[in-house]
Amino acid sequence: DKYELLQAGKTLCLIVHDLNKSDAGVYTCDIGSDKASAKVTIQELNIGITKRLKSTEIKEGESGSFECILSHESIDEYYWTVNGLLVKGNERFEAFNIGRKYLLSIKDTTLSDA
Predict the structure, then answer these.
(1) Which residues fall within 8 angstroms of residue 9, CB to CB, at 6 or more apart?
(2) How far is CA 112 from CA 28, 51, 61, 82, 109, in A?
(3) Which residue, 7, 39, 73, 77, is the most exposed by fewest CB within 10 angstroms?
(4) Is 0.90 surpassed by the pTM of this model?
(5) pLDDT tens-digit profile of 1-11?
(6) Tens digits of residue pLDDT in 62-100
(7) Contact, 89 vs 95, CB < 8 A?
(8) Closest alpha carbon to 48 in 66, 67, 68
(9) Using an 8 Å Cβ cutoff, are 100 and 87 in contact?
């Protein structure tokens, strides 16, 4: 669920999951005899690369991999390119991510992969 309401004793809590810009606004807790409001603004998360790709030398026919690490986890779509051409997953190329780490594995490299 997007919203989660919690109560512990006299404390009421609203948790908003997976925040995005549309969640900005005035939130109000109304208990009938009193109410409290707060304005919520959402700042865009600037994601950067904290570990960049390293140049590497791989012998033809061997496997190799590349990795980069982002500053924050991202739900945005990503893609890899080789010499400007989009890499499509197949038996030789595998692209995946684990949290902030993005990896491209190449099996049985050829000269055209350089």
Answers:
(1) none
(2) 60, 26, 12, 10, 8
(3) 77
(4) no
(5) 999 999 999 89
(6) 999 999 999 998 877 889 998 888 988 888 999 999 999
(7) yes
(8) 68
(9) no
